[in-house]
């Protein structure tokens, strides 16, 4: 290092230490930009620029999929007056609300049970986490097969108990219920792990104090565990909401969006507008922008409600 | 449901040595009326039963798929279905491996997963370090932008992403599947949260000792972040191994198919029998499950320490 700086002759007045310090300061000022650069290049090229470009495309009509004519906000107007879009929006809302509520409650219950369980905890944790590891494509395939009306696992078990054989994937309401359930099945273990980590961060001496004060078991859950767990619960609600709005892969192989579009959610709507004839890139991009704004708004709302509750 | 929740914290706290000292002497038979007047051991039995029943229900379809993958096509079509294969055989696997270029798809999946995970760890960790331990102009804006993109699914922007990948000549190349998803916002977030907890004094001391900025990152910060890196690595492996839509778009040539793409093609072409789809599904699940089982302890402790709380 000193040999390197000594090589530049003619500025010998600076003492080596001063020079080194100055050089260190420069490198310290430049270092963060160099550290963040590779990530930001990949990020910019494959996320930020396409996202902005997506907004740009949404202002054009793609016609036959090649020609782009500026149409301003026409795509947005068309979507917002399209009954198909509102049907999809309603299904998406039902799915997201059902999924988020069920997965949060179930994951909290599971985390509480796992936290209390001493024997075989690792085994249970692994069992409940297994579906997280499976490709959504395979999840959809397996459940589609398990829910088959005639010969599926579910109806075989129900038949053995004399409970009939519902057409899970043929009835629109049942299909939506099944889709929410499979989403729950896929994600439960992941959110339970996050909540379990939160539970283990709660100071056990609080429970002792509460017990000495005569608090019952349910009271301790309600007054200590749940309030202290709230920041973690907020993270889970936010992540689950985003995941709910993005659900696509497993539904594609589970129901294909059917029956009669009952489980076609917003991402599939976008996918169909972009890929199926007549190809409408502009319209699909506009729907994408609407989706982004919705998710963004709901996330901010989640945080606002979560924070306010925390303050009370 | 409520009885389950009721006895949880008692046992949760009771399992810890400190509270056992405080809690046990105070226990009187009458205190357990909240769970129906049963002694605590009943609570444990109930809890274990519920956890076991739930776990079996969660595992059932996967186990059934696994068992069925050893059945002959005739047996698969039988009604009612048999719980266990009558004549278990690897016939479906052998047929799947020989009928299709399975080895190539598997290798492609391994290469994409390994390459993308290595790249993700490298660039996410560097970015996280800059965000966690430096003050520089634009830092907070970059962090907010990074977080905001968690809300942009690929499904929404795949068209412009595809245009970009195409203009860089990465279509039909494994690099096209490795590079675009590598800058994960989740990875940056998790690593940054973890790095915030590292003491500044350690880094400052190294600077005074004359260590360069990259040397500090490489020799001091990264080793301290091992638990967080393990979490990001396992999540990256799960994501990339199971990715579907993006590889489907990039891999238009069969020679660069990954497993999920091949699988989706098999199942969508109804000419391919379901027994082969089953065998390939099981084979595609196996590696990730094995990695998870091997690293489970690190993953769990990593999640606990990563600030996801």
From TrEMBL, chain A:
It holds the Pfam family BPD_transp_1. The chain crosses the membrane at residues 29-52, 93-114, 126-146, 152-170, 177-199, 228-245, 250-271, 283-305. Residues 1-21 are annotated as: Disordered. Keywords: Cell membrane, Membrane, Transmembrane, Transmembrane helix, Transport. This is Sugar ABC transporter permease. It comes from the Bacteria. Belongs to the binding-protein-dependent transport system permease family. GO terms for cellular component: plasma membrane. Residues 89-302 form the ABC transmembrane type-1 domain. One of its GO terms (biological process) is transmembrane transport. It is a multi-pass membrane protein. It is found in: Cell membrane. Signal peptide: none annotated.
UniProtKB/TrEMBL annotation, chain B:
The chain crosses the membrane at residues 44-67, 105-129, 141-162, 174-195, 216-239, 270-295. It is found in: Cell membrane. Pfam families: BPD_transp_1. This is ABC transmembrane type-1 domain-containing protein. InterPro entries: MetI-like, MetI-like_sf. PROSITE patterns: ABC_TM1 (PS50928). Residues 1-38 are annotated as: Disordered. CDD domains: TM_PBP2. Residues 106-295 form the ABC transmembrane type-1 domain. Belongs to the binding-protein-dependent transport system permease family. The keyword Transmembrane helix applies. GO terms for cellular component: plasma membrane. Its main location: membrane. Gene3D superfamilies: MetI-like (1.10.3720.10).
């Amino acid at each position: 290092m000193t040999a390197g700086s000594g090589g530049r002759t003619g500025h010998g007045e600076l003492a080596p230490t001063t020079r080194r310090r100055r050089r260190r300061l420069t490198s310290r000022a430049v270092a963060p930009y160099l550290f963040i650069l590779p990530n930001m290049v990949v990020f910019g090229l494959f996320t930020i620029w396409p996202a902005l470009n997506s907004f740009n495309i949404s202002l054009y009509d793609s016609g036959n999929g090649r020609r782009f004519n500026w149409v301003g906000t026409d795509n947005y107007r068309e979507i917002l007056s399209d009954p198909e879009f509102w049907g999809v929006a309603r299904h998406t809302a039902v799915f997201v609300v059902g999924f988020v509520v069920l997965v949060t409650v179930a994951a909290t219950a599971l985390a509480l049970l796992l936290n209390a369980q001493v024997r075989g905890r690792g085994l249970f944790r692994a069992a409940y986490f297994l579906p997280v590891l499976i490709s959504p494509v395979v999840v959809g395939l397996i459940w589609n097969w398990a829910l088959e009306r005639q010969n599926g696992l579910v109806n075989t078990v129900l038949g053995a108990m004399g409970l009939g054989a519902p057409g899970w994937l043929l009835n629109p309401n049942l299909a939506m219920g099944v889709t929410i359930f499979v989403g729950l099945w896929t994600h439960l273990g992941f959110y339970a792990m996050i909540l379990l980590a939160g539970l283990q961060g709660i100071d056990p001496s609080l429970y002792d104090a509460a017990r000495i004060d005569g608090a019952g078991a349910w009271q301790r859950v309600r007054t200590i565990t749940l309030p202290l767990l709230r920041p973690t619960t907020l993270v889970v609600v936010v992540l689950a909401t985003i995941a709910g709005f993005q659900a696509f892969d497993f539904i594609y192989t589970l129901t294909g969006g059917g029956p009669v579009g009952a489980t076609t959610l917003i991402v599939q709507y976008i996918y169909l507008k972009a890929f199926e004839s007549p190809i409408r890139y502009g319209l699909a991009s506009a729907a994408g922008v609407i989706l982004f704004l919705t998710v963004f708004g709901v996330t901010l709302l989640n945080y606002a409600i979560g924070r306010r509750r925390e303050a009370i | 449901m409520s009885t389950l929740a009721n006895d949880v914290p008692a046992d949760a706290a009771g399992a810890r040595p400190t509270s056992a000292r405080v809690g046990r002497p105070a226990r009187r038979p009458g205190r357990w009326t909240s769970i129906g007047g049963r002694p605590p051991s009943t609570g444990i039995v109930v809890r274990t039963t519920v956890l076991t029943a739930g776990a079996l229900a969660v595992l059932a379809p996967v186990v059934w798929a696994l068992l069925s993958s050893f059945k002959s096509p005739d047996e698969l079509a039988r009604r009612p279905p048999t719980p266990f294969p009558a004549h278990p055989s690897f016939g479906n696997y052998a047929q799947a491996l020989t009928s299709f270029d399975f080895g190539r798809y598997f290798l492609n999946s391994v290469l994409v997963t390994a390459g993308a995970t290595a790249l993700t760890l490298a660039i996410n960790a560097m970015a996280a370090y800059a965000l966690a331990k430096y003050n520089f102009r634009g830092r907070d804006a970059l962090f907010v932008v990074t977080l905001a993109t968690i809300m942009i699914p690929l499904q929404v922007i795949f068209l412009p992403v595809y245009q970009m990948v195409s203009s860089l000549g990465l279509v039909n190349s494994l690099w096209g599947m490795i590079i675009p998803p590598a800058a994960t916002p989740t990875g940056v977030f998790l690593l940054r949260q973890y790095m915030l907890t590292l003491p500044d004094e350690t880094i400052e001391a190294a600077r005074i000792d004359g260590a360069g900025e990259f040397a500090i990152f490489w020799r001091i910060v990264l080793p301290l972040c091992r638990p967080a890196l393990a979490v990001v690595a396992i999540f990256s492996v799960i994501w990339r191994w199971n990715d579907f839509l993006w590889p489907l778009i990039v891999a238009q040539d069969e020679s660069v198919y990954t497993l999920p793409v091949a699988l989706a093609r098999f199942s969508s072409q109804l000419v391919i029998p379901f027994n082969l789809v089953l065998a390939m599904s099981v084979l595609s699940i196996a590696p990730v499950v094995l990695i998870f089982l091997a690293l489970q302890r690190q993953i769990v402790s990593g999640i606990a320490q990563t600030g996801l709380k």
